[in-house]
Amino acid sequence: MTTYKICLLPGDGIGPEIIAEGVKVLDAVGAKHGVGFEYEEALIGGIAIDETGTALPEQTLDVAKAADAVLLAAVGGYKWDTTDPTKPRPEQGLLGIRKGLGLYTNLRPVQIFGALSQASTLKPEVIDGVDMMIVRELTGGLYFGARERFYDEAGAGVDGACGQRAYDTLEYREYEIERIARQAFEIARKRRGKVSSVDKANVLETSRLWREIVHAVHDADYADVELEDILVDNCAMQLINRPADFDVVVTENMFGDILSDEAAQITGSLGMLASASLGDATALYEPSHGSAPDIAGKGVANPLAQILSVEMMLRYSFDMSQAADDVRRAITHVLDEGWRTGDIADACTAPERKVGTAMMGDLVVRSL
Ligand code: IPM
Ligand code: MG
Given this model, what pLDDT does residue 120 score? Predict the structure, then answer.
């Protein structure tokens, strides 16, 4: 029997609750398809700060590197919220593991589940047919550039008084743009054959380089794929205006961070969005949402984005596309039957079909 080693990173907030449901589903898939999954848990985020003083202990990176895939839940919480640049932050764990595993491609699929079309704040005719893949560059740009906060004697304060200054640096190298562009074109070929490349080339030098490289890659090797450039501010507007027109959206790190949250809302809930982070070795799978500290420990969080990230793991790391399709079908079935966690429930939800985290996981397993 094939056995895969999976590194589990529950993290903070609702993390431990939702990852347990991901594991339930993996075990069920394993039993059904004759594959074994072995788990090793490691610390990341706020809990790692509490226990080791750093958001990404070296041992965690070692466990992740030795695994066949990493399943992460979420990091962060009020307890570690600080603007003090000298204090560790949970998010450093996430950024650190992405960098440490070389995960430069972040895939965030935005799809509508028919049963949830009412959950969107957009009109049904606007979201009809929405099916896009956001391809976010994940290890470059502003989130990884040099940054500093310092006291400036030369007058950063009001009226020329001393004051604080801070900067972040946005930098991209040709190879970083080229490899993410290739990923986007490859994915587009397996979908509807269209790439929207998002930048701010009317202002930013990095964006002008981005645009040039994306076009060079396109013209050389992917002329069969349709390519459009779209400025990030316009893209933010068009995502709401005509979301079904987008197929593959490729963009740099920060724009992708912001636009993927916006795109998630088209589906009605961030609780339904999974993501895959791929590099040249071990890949990482996580929900697109955060640790939801306000509902942590209550057993009410929606585990479906975590379960959908298991679906992506089966597809991308283990080449088990049939098993992945099974998981998606199971979720669709559960939703069609009317089962809802709080975030996706509405006035039409029968009270007895409103369920918590563990029950939602059980329902998916049952339907598998
Ligand atoms: C995400 C999150 C992270 C990011 C944060 C927590 C560092 O917002 O995965 O989208 O910005 O990448
Ligand atoms: Mg984000």
Answer: 86
**Taking the complete model, does pTM exceed 0.85, yes or no?**
yes
Residue with the smallest CA separation from ligand 1 atom 11 is 257
Listing DSSP states for 278-327 in one string gives: E-SS-EEEEESS---GGGTTTT-S--HHHHHHHHHHHHHTS--HHHHHHH
Give Cα 60 distance to the centre of its chain.
20
Residue spans of alpha helices (H) in 79-157: 91-100, 124-127
Q: Which ligand is nearest the CA of 106, by number?
A: 1
257 is catalytic: yes
pLDDT range class, residue 154, cuts 50, 70, 90:
confident
Token digits for 32?
Answer: 């059904």
User: What does the radius of gyration of the chain's CA atoms come to, in whole angstroms?
Assistant: 21
Q: H or E stretch including 187?
A: helix 174-189
Q: Report which protein residue has its CA nearest ligand 1's atom 12.
A: 257
